[in-house]
Amino acid sequence: MKGIWILMALAPTMALALATFSGTKTPSNTSSTPDTAAKDPYLWLENVTGEKALAWVHERNAESAKELAGTPAFTALEANLLAVYDSKERIPLITKEGPYYYNFWRDAQNPRGIWRRTTLEEYRKVDPAWETILDLDALGKAEHENWVWEGADVLRPAYNRCLIKLSRGGADATVVREFDIATKTFVKDGFQLPEAKNEMSWIDENSVYVGTDFGPGSMTDSGYPRIVKLWKRGTPLAKAETIYEGKATDMAASAAFDDTKGFERHFVYRTLAFFSQETFLRTADGGLHKIDVPLDANASVHREWMLVELRTPWTVGTRTFPSGALLATRFDAFMAGKRDFAVLFEPSPTTSLSSYGWTLNHLILNVLDDVKSRLWVLTPAEGEWRREALPAAAQFASLGAWAVDSRESDAYFMTVTDFLTPTALYMGTFGQPPEKLKQTPAFFDASGFEISQHFAASKDGTRIPYFQVSAKGMALDASHPTLLTGYGGFEISEVPYYSGSVGRAWLSKGGVYVLANIRGGGEYGPRWHQAALKANRPRAYEDFAAVAQDLVARKVTSPRLLGAIGGSNGGLLMGNMITGYPQLFGAIVCEAPLLDMKRYSKLLAGASWMSEYGDPDKPSDWAFIKTFSPYQNLKKGTKYPPVLFTTSTRDDRVHPGHARKMMAKMRDMGCDVRFYENVEGGHAGAADNKQTAHMMALAYTFLWKELKP
């Protein structure tokens, strides 16, 4: 399930919690004054690895484990969910690098995972033969580290080396180490970086672009690299050439080399904030030439073409292109001053551009129409580009399509899924029916369920879509335990997806599952996102509450039987349901949440989200932020629904202090609350499948305990 951030018991692993941070930066970049401490008696819980704070975490975890995890039913559910995550019949998604197809895989025998490869011929088989390249369990054991895989950048065109990212316990901060694929060993004296929020990518075999913690002042206020350097093999990092410096108030800076044959180019990126970026073409003499598009537009280059995705209207000459449009032009002509654009997509009241990507010669658009996916294939042509539909699936299916290798061919992968249909992976070329390569097994019997879409009217009259998964012919008698989830932020769209855990732990036990498409997300493009920014943020919460009220009005459920779950920005959503709409819910699971919006910008990566929420240090901004800051909006004497808070000690993106402090404050107010914090997992919450199953079993056990008819 989206939003279930996975945690595990801290009780037996207190030493690991402390060891996890030895020699690294503790994620507790807090800034406080005696006055702050006086106003916030729970500030001490922001000390992530402080002895007092960890003792408090240990006590809360033990309480939650005793309440939720001490029964045979919990053990059976945990095992049932783990069987889903460890199933060898899951689709091993692959990426092509040279002649091989690579996959990272976790199962019962490989809890931390193996990086492996095979050929396409083998992959087509029911049981392919895989060659293991790196075993993370063996590596962690040999190096006495709790390594979590964060990806690999393979060197082209030799495909013999890669830059591997590993994190301790799943944090955003990583180490980077050069690896020899042929010998399956790390390269002695190769490119490597110590733990930080690193960026490193290949230019050629002997040079890389690197952004890291170069020392005091080299990181942004958000904790990401501010300086980009070109680093040559055999030279110390301190001697690397600086090619760009951003400002401390920026979000991040980075660089990349496009190695497409015949179109080799270097780019530098200055990210000012989410959805605000400057892109530069770096020439052979080191000069930087800005790509002159709006700051909030996304410009990307493929071979001779540049695409520009707009988030606000853009007037070029006498023509104004609308927000949400996708434009195309020839890159070299644009840099020479020409402004001739073809409009590849223009939104309607019900449609938005969900994603797009190139194969060698074609562009695939994934369009949402009232949150239902449609795929289109566009082919460059003089004047209007050729357009044809890519055939796909059922009414409520979510589709994904991407190039197998956009530098080499027009082959593409495609996934098709919905709430009741196990995900299928296809491979195809245009003009021919795609070949089904793999399909996820059916983890539950879906024959008795149906998907429906409904629309609720929000407080201001806006039409809010939501998906419902329920038993066929279900009686509308308000008697059904219902789980409502959503996100509503950062222009992220929530679309139908298949989940064996939702099926086994919720639907099969008689529950109704609902996914809300509230404002702040991207379901209707930039306008849907911008409708809930900063001072308008409460619209997202009004939308979610409207869906809850509609479920009650339609007699699907009643407030006592209605639960809600969400994580990260969705955890902030849950916090506002707790404080703003407590009468609507019978139980809430609040995961990896933002909750103290007075201090969020001072904690870890929080400064990077001020374009979304506002700056609490500005009185004019705090005037509206305080209306959706759950930690400040708790009121004694209010009856709040039962709540389970979860977080991770190793979350270096959203500070665990948010959940800790909210829990402590509500507990001292006598509220019905419980708390669980994992020592690993970072913002994703889990470092392996066992942790995933454990935390999901905790969440579902809590929900059924509170929402049983």
What would you say this structure looks like, in words?
The protein has 709 residues and is an alpha+beta fold. Among the domains are: 11-20 and 43-83 and 443-707, 3-Layer(aba) Sandwich (Rossmann fold), CATH 3.40.50.1820; 298-347, no CATH class; 351-442. 21% of the residues lie in helices and 31% in strands. It contains 16 helices and 39 strands. Helix 4 packs across helix 16 (689-707) and helix 10 (538-553) crosses helix 11 (569-580). It is globular and about 65 Å long.
For this structure, the CATH topology of the domain at 11-20 and 43-83 and 443-707 is Rossmann fold
Structural class: alpha+beta
User: What strand line-up does the widest sheet have?
Assistant: 32-33-35-34-36-37-38-39
- Major sheet size, sense and barrel closure: 8 strands, mixed
Q: Poorly predicted ranges (pLDDT <50, ≥5 residues)?
A: 1-29
CATH superfamily of the domain at 11-20 and 43-83 and 443-707: Alpha/Beta hydrolase fold, catalytic domain
Proportion in helices: 10-25%
Number of strands: 39
Rg, rounded, reads 25 Å
Which whole number gives the mean pLDDT?
Answer: 93
Basic shape? globular
Any guess at the CATH architecture of the domain at 11-20 and 43-83 and 443-707? 3-Layer(aba) Sandwich
Fraction of residues in β-strands: 25-35%
End-to-end span in angstroms?
22 Å
Q: Quick one: CATH class of the domain at 11-20 and 43-83 and 443-707?
A: Alpha Beta
**Helical run tally:** 16
